[in-house]
Write a structure and sequence with these properties.
single chain, 721 residues, alpha/beta, seven-stranded antiparallel sheet, six-stranded parallel sheet, 17 strands, 49% helix, superoxide-generating NAD(P)H oxidase activity, NADPH oxidase 5
Length: 721
């Protein structure tokens, strides 16, 4: 740092220190623990002991600055010496196996990783045996340094998150100003269909608006604006319905139309049109109110303002002068629908509010037909198609008896439902369905991605994360000790009913796994952007948390097709996969990235992923067809002094046992979050063909990944329904 930066850094540290130390001018151990916000007190105590150079059981500002200067600006040797002293608990100048085990145990707690004691022993021995080069039974500083040098990615940026609370913001590099992503060539190329469609949509609205204004020029400026917005509302109130014709859109995804129109953006376009309706209706209503105010104040007017707005006396409208009254009702309903559709309502566990308010679309269309003399001309054809879709949906969902035959309650309140698959139910990988379980809520339908493959003939899998009222009720329903309590019959119940009841009682396989026979209804399937995955050459599948569900189906289907190409030598165990492209699958490479917050979340699909790993051929002409990348965000990164020993031990044991200690997969679980620029750089260097990135998970992360995809020129698809 320069002299000016040094001065600012000193001022920052002094300010932060004084805010914690108060009048005492020194920090004791408890204050130090509070400041560090560490999960495990071991590291706080070790850091405190090393910072406290005079052994006074408190840290002064000078002692803190000296230690921080070493950790932030010191050489690699200085940092390694500090790390060695942290591990050397008894200060003997060497690290024995018990000390190393104590450190690794604390590392596990700090990274929120739970492993049995036997595995902890294995980790300790793996790291100790690798570092103890002379088999002396102790690790010296030189041996630890030599071991760390075999991990160059750690040595590049060795740091300590415990010092982050005192790092000045000026030390960090200032963000380089880039061209806004919306003005980049990559953004326009990657979003060309959507942008062209939006331009056409905006042009059509502008054309309709101008035509209506010119046709009503004699009515005054307010009347002209009201008519212009009214004509735009005719278009938008019909178009918003077309965008939700799910069966038609699913069918169109299998045609050439998908290459011309942004069918994968139908939810986004539906939202845009919804906001356009709200805007046009607001301007339309305001313009009419201003026009009524002018009419009521003009000479010779027989009606007052409130009569124009709230009565049918002025005779405005083609159905008994009801235009004003229906207009006010429409404005209130549309406003309510917009509010209840906000992200805050949908993502805060109140999906039912969004769902029930959206059912008022029937009332909106009925009022629009009464309100506007020409709306029925816009509405009749799409309305008939919409009605047919609903009739088909009801018929399909009620056709045959569907039953939930097996339930598995997974960590983080995820419910795995196994539904008996009817013979007429055909779907593609990544499709979703609407599910209704009368025992939970008789009239509620909720969308969930199918997590099983189409090739799985007997059952359908759904994985449901408890995030709202309905999903929580679902989890609690199946968590009951015995489902008999839900459907217990009275003594007067007939023998037949009691026999039917027995078929519904759960046959427990374990505490969270049971067989059952619960009635349900399924509406679907409906297509998603992931249907295009088999037309890709290099597919990157990114799932965040429960966002893995569409990719569980896709990966199973991919590996099923892959097994059809797998060849085995009859004379030995050698196997390979023929590199054949066909109309069904053009894939040459699949990268699957799964990001989870904690260790338990990996249990949702670990058995499936293990099977997929085992199915792969050992040797292939162009390398491994499927590569998995697991990330655990709660785990501290390899560069952090509080985790470096653990991550080294996990690497060493994974190489020895050929499986990851956290998940049991062959793929090593990486700590922290992916560095997307490095991930996509590696993908680009593989040159496996055109890259398509498919994502399902948090909308915040979607924006980050999409920006990186645009930078590399990759096509980005976000799972939406």
């Amino acid at each position: 740092m320069s002299l000016d930066e040094d001065a600012r850094w000193l001022e920052w540290v002094t300010k932060q220190f004084e805010s914690i130390a108060g009048d005492g001018k020194e920090i004791d151990l408890e204050e130090f623990k509070t400041a560090l916000k560490v999960k495990e007190s071991f590291f706080a105590e070790r850091f405190f002991a090393l910072f406290d150079s005079d052994g006074s059981s408190s840290i002064s500002l000078d002692e803190l600055l000296e230690a921080l200067d070493l950790l932030i600006n010191g050489s690699e040797t200085d940092k390694l010496r500090f790390l060695f002293q942290v591990y050397d608990v008894d200060g003997s100048g060497s690290i024995d196996p018990d000390e190393l085990r104590t450190v690794l145990k604390s590392c596990l707690r700090e990274s929120a990783i739970s492993l049995p004691d036997e595995k902890l022993d294995d980790l300790t021995l793996a790291l100790f045996e690798s570092a103890d080069k002379d088999n002396s039974g102790f690790i010296t500083f030189e041996e630890l340094k030599a071991e760390l040098e075999t991990f160059p990615e750690v040595m590049e940026n060795l740091t300590i998150s415990a010092a982050n609370w005192l790092k000045p913001p000026n030390v960090e590099q200032r963000r380089i100003r880039h061209t806004p992503r919306y003005l980049t060539r990559a953004y326009w190329l990657n979003n060309s269909r959507k942008l062209l469609f939006l331009c056409a949509y905006a042009s059509l609205n502008l054309t309709l608006f101008m035509m209506a204004i010119l046709q009503n020029a004699a009515g005054g400026i307010c009347f002209m604006i009201a008519k212009g917005c009214g004509q735009c509302l005719n278009l938008n109130c019909t178009f918003v319905m077309i965008l939700m014709l799910r069966r038609c859109l699913t069918w169109l995804r299998a045609t050439w139309v998908v290459r011309v129109l942004p069918l994968d953006q139908n939810i986004l376009l539906h939202q845009i049109v919804g906001y356009a309706i709200f805007f046009f209706s607001l301007v339309h209503t305001t313009a009419h109110i201003m026009n009524f105010a002018h009419l009521s104040q003009s000479s010779g007017s027989t009606f007052r303002m409130w009569e124009y707005l709230l009565t049918t006396r002025p005779g405005i409208g083609w159905v008994q002068g009801s235009a004003s009254v229906t207009g006010i009702l429409l404005q209130l309903i549309i406003g309510l629908m917009v509010v209840c559709s906000s992200t805050f309502v949908r993502r805060s566990g109140h999906f039912e509010v969004f769902y029930l308010s959206h059912l008022s679309y029937v009332l909106v269309w009925a009022l629009l037909i009464v309100h506007c003399a020409n709306f029925w001309k816009w509405f009749v054809v799409p309305g008939v198609v919409f009605l047919l879709e609903k009739i088909v949906g009801i018929a399909v969902s009620r056709m045959g008896g569907l039953y939930i035959v097996e339930v598995n309650l997974l960590p983080s309140k995820v419910t795995h439902l196994v539904i008996k698959r009817p013979p007429f139910f055909h779907f593609k990988p990544g499709d979703y369905v609407y599910l209704n379980i009368p025992a939970i809520a008789k009239y509620e339908w909720h969308p969930f991605t199918i997590s099983s493959a189409p090739e799985q003939q007997d059952t359908i899998w759904l994985h449901v994360r408890s995030m709202g009222q309905w999903t929580n009720r679902l989890y609690e329903f199946f968590r009951q000790p015995d489902l008999q309590a839900v459907s217990t019959k009275r003594l007067t119940t007939s023998l037949r009913n009691r026999q039917n009841q027995r078929t519904q009682i759960s046959a427990k396989l374990s505490e969270n796994h049971r067989f059952c026979n619960i009635k349900c209804y399924v509406d679907g399937p409906y297509g998603t952007p992931t249907r295009q995955i088999f037309t890709s050459e290099h597919a990157v599948l990114i799932g965040a948390g429960i966002g893995i569900t569409p990719f569980a189906s896709i990966l199973q289907s991919i590996m099923y097709r892959y097994r059809m190409r797998k060849q085995n030598c009859p004379n030995c165990n050698y196997s390979w996969c023929e590199n054949i492209k066909d109309n069904e699958m053009k894939l040459r490479k699949v990268d699957f990235i799964w990001i989870n917050r904690d260790q338990k979340s990996f249990e949702w699909f670990v058995s499936l992923l293990t099977k997929l790993e085992m199915d792969q051929a050992d040797m292939e002409p162009e390398g491994r067809f499927l590569e998995m990348h697991m990330y655990m965000t709660s785990a501290l990164s390899k560069n952090d002094m509080k985790a470096i020993g653990l991550q080294m031990a996990l690497d060493l044991l994974a190489k020895k046992e050929k499986r990851d200690s956290i998940t049991g997969l062959r793929t090593r679980t990486q700590p922290g979050r992916p560095e997307w620029s490095k991930v996509f750089q590696k993908v680009a260097q593989e040159n496996k063909g055109k890259v398509h990135v498919f994502y399902c998970g948090s909308p915040v992360l979607a924006k980050v990944i999409k920006a990186e995809c645009e930078h590399f020129g990759f096509h980005f698809y976000k799972e939406n329904f």
